[in-house]
Amino acid sequence: MMNTKGKILQLQHYSVNDGDGIRTIVFFAGCPLRCRWCSNPEGWEARDRILYIASRCIGCGRCTSVCPRQVGCDLNAPGEREKCVDCGACVKACLEHARKHSVTEWTVQQVLDWLEKELIFFRESGGGVTYSGGECTQQPEFLHELARAVYDLGLNQAMETCGYFPLEKLQPTLDLMDLLFMDIKHMDRAKHRQFTGVDNDLILHNIAALGKQNKNIVVRIPTIMGVNGDEENIRNTARFVREHLPEPKLELLPYHSYGADKYTQLGLSYDEQAFRRPTDEELARLRAIVTEEGVEAVSYR
Q1: What is the pLDDT averaged over residues 212-236?
Q2: Which of 40, 43, 30 is nearest to 142 (CA)?
Q3: Helix, strand, coil share (%) of the chain residues, nearest 5
């Protein structure tokens, strides 16, 4: 089982924001949602796509000389990306690192080899491993095998998930987790579909079902003004959390546009003006609403 393979965006080391202690975050490729503000668009699909960093390109033509389709230096020029088959030959040829892979293939053993280098940090800090994405539940077999192996190492495990998964299939993996971060993007079903591409029925069902199992859950809201950062939505979300979780906790994550460059690198459009980060005053007010509803307002930031 150690040779089970998965599609990984990256391993991020020494994180202190996604669970207790010092952690390594394993970012899985593939996601069933298409959130309009997504900061990891390269993780929408569980396949490699070539990122083009124009600021590094010097136009030397090495990429074109090795490309089987003769794609030009500017991968995002009209018609060029359509010709690209994402073979990666250009990535190896580019001396300026203007091209890079979005997804690489790892075995369970390869991930473990990396994690074992950091065991001292995990154990001294009470940290561990957090599975994220993309959406880690999109690769259920690889996730389960990896989680079993990490469990055998005695490490703390957390999962960040959009909650859009078949609960029965994922239950054995969820039982290995010490902490679940589960997103509620919006309580309004229609608005959830408008902004993410899917409704929230399955997500809310899963949170409620896992709450009955007394799982350690922190519900997260990626808080975006003009989308879900209004008082009504925050209050309704807090009430749902209070009703369905035995130890209700909610974390408000203020929107950021750190992933905007990735859209450019993938030849995609991104309207930064469509979303706004809450001010400190707005965020404080929304956290106060969470507390008013009898829910603990937590922060791992």
Answers
A1: 97
A2: 30
A3: 40, 20, 40
